[in-house]
Structures are given as structure tokens and as C-alpha cells.
Amino acid sequence: MLTKLSWRSIALKTIALAVLSCLACSGNAQKSPVSQNTQANYRLVPVVKGLEHPWSMVWLPDRTMLVTERLGRLRIVRNGVLDPTAIGGVPAVFASGQGGLMDISLHPQFAKNRLVYLTYAHGNNIANRTRLARAVFDGKNLKNLQVIFEVSPVKPGSQHFGSRITWLPDNTLLLAIGDGGNPPLQIEGKLPRFQAQNRRSQLGKVLRLKDDGSIPRDNPFVKAANTDPAIWSYGHRNIQGMTFDPVTKRVWATEHGSSGGDELNLVQKGKNYGWPLATYSTEYGSNNNISPNKSLPGLEDPKAVWTPAIAPSGLTTYDGKRFPQWQKNLFAGGLVDQAVRRIELDANGKVLNQEPISIGARVRDVRQGPDDLLYILTDASEGQLIRLEPTQR
């Protein structure tokens, strides 16, 4: 168990994972090296214990932290201490499988309007969907909660809600939505995966919305026939990590493949990311290729592919001063490989190198904190908040 690990031991050595993931770059499917840091310049410090399947975190201007727990609670952490009382006013959620209370984000003008945004699963096992809600946070409770957007169509089961929120400089937000689930589930008489290519559906998409949930007029498909106007990009399976790089103005996302074929994608307006027409994924249980094609003309290739799967969840761009050698790197959490993957990029967004930082537990989220350190949430019934900091200050 994570709580029995020696944190000192973890900090002194980064374990190269027993089975290193295969990395394929865009287009020519070249492999990028995975490095092993034999002299770790960081340490892992436990900050908070006793979180029940935490999913996401965000900092208020006073450095108080809000943490979502998938089962439906919103928690507050002050000065490294978890308040035993959950925040009131959180909506009821469909807490089953992968569903529940998921992402949390602050409005870019939170200091003025106190608006908090939440994503959560709503419904039941027969018919459910991802909802986006916003509310005013008064320091103890959420007030005036409004559901400002809900995904269409409804889906069965408890898989592939996606759910990451990312703000753009114009105060619109991107909302990642999964394709709806795995076989044998069906939506409209077909496997859910085909929703990702159905432009009338919001499943398997990245959606762009105004801060009130309405549709921006300059979305790429506003005037396109038989296409939902909320769509920003499509052909996604299940994005659970997404971040905006304020320096390069790029949107990066990590998404789950099926039995391998996890992807790192550079998400761009109006682009098709191929699922399930072109993929490195195989069917669960059979290892049969889902598609004979790993790349097709007109479809965007991933910048990296991980097989075996790392089950990516949580993604951030680092631009802090505490780790100057890591500036402009991406940090991607992994549920299966129980690590945070440091990803080096060149100026054009090509993956140059990767370093797995072993955490020893399922990583649900990773973020850069206001102190320029990295914070990690572990996904467990006794989940933790962990801080990654330099060994020398």
C-alpha cells in the first residue's frame, strides 16, 4: 500500500518501469527514448491523506485548495490540512464505475465573481451523461448552482465520461467528453466508439463553450450541416488529461486507448483525431486490431502512443522556477503505470524524451501549484495528495 512505502526511498531513485511503454511519434511513428534518472533531483512528500478516490484539484487565490472526490464530495485543504467537513451545495452525482464528481476549475475572474465549475456524471446505469455546472463559492458552501451544459446523447453504463475542463485566453472553455463506453454497450444501435466520428453527437469530442455554457459563434462547425455547433475537435476515445500552454498557445490532451494505444495529442480547432478509424488500440480480451489503420490522410496523428497502456489521467504544463530544467515540459499522470511521466518537447511540439517518475499508486491528477511545485492526486479509497519538490532548495 502507498502509505507503507518509504518516501525517502522513492525520492532517492526513480524506478524505470518493468515494462516500458512503446512510444510512437506523429506521422512517421518514430520512437522517442524513455530515460531513467539515476540521480533524482526531487523528492516526494505526502501532504494530505484520507481522500476517497480524489479526481481533481484547484487552488483559490489565497492558496486554499479544493479537491473533488469521485463519490460526490468536494473537500477543502488549508495549509496542508484536510477539513473534515465537506463543502455543501454539491449536486447529486451518478457515482458508479468511472462516473461521479470529476473535474473542478475556477473562472478566470474568480477573484471577482467567485465562480467554480464542476463536471459530474448524472443519471443512472441505463441513461446518463456528463454535466457541467457552475456555482458561487462563499468559502464554505456552493451557492446558486446552475447546470449550464449537459452532453447529448445520453448513454448507458458507467464508462468514458471524459470530463476535463481547460480555459482559453478568450475566457471560453474546452470540455473533453468520452465516446460513451466499450463493447458490448450500444448507443443508437451501434458500439459507442462510433459516436466519436458522428458529428451530430457530442460524445468522443472536445467541446468549446462560453463561460455560461452557450456556444461561441466562432466555433469551427457552427455553420456546418449535420454537425453539433459545440464541437471543437472530434475522433477522441476518452480524454482524461488536458492542458493549455500559455507560452506556445497549444492545447495538449492525453486519452485512453483500448488495451494499449493511449495517446498524447496536440488538440487543434476543427481537427479529426481518428478514433476508431485509425488507432494503435486492440480489442480487450482478443488483441485484435480495432482498425487496420494506424494513420490515415486527413486525420491527426498522435504525438506519442503508449503500448502497453499507462491509462493517462491528469496533464499539466510546467513553467515554474523551482524546477528550471523542467520548464516547457509536460507532466502526464498514469493510472496503470502508477507514475507521472515527464515529457520533453521541441519548439515544434515533437516529443524528444520521456522520464517516468514512479509514484507507487494510481495517479489521477497532476498540477503545478502556486508555489511552482508539482502536486499529485492518487486514486484510491485512501487516496493522497503528494508534493514533488527539489531535494535542494
Give a description of the structure.
- The protein is mostly beta strands and about 400 residues long.
- The chain has one domain (about 1-390): Neuraminidase (6 Propeller), CATH 2.120.10.
- The chain is about 5% helix and about 35% strand.
- The chain has helices at about 5-10, 110-115; strands at about 40-50, 55-60, 65-70, 75-80, 80, 100-105, 115-125, 130-135, 140-150, 165, 175, 205-210, 230-235, 240-245, 250-255, 260-265, 305, 310-315, 330-335, 340-345, 350-360, 365-370, 375-380, 385-390.
- The strands form six sheets. It has a four-stranded antiparallel sheet with strand order 1-24-23-22. Strands 2-3-4-5 form a four-stranded antiparallel sheet, with no helix packed on it.
- A hairpin with a 2-residue loop joins strand 4 and strand 5 (about 80).
- The longest helix has 6 residues, at about 5-10.
- It is globular and about 50 Å long.
- The relative contact order is 0.15.
- The model is unreliable at about 1-40 (pLDDT under 50).
Q: What share of residues is helical?
A: under 10%
Oligomer: single chain
CATH architecture: 6 Propeller
Give me the Rg, rounded: 20 Å
The biggest beta sheet reads: 4 strands, antiparallel
Counted beta strands: 24
**How big a fraction of the residues is strand?**
35-45%
- By secondary-structure content and strand pairing, the structural class works out as mainly beta
Give a quick rundown of the structure.
With 393 residues, this protein is mainly β. Helix content is 3%, strand content 37%. The radius of gyration is 20 Å and the shape is globular.
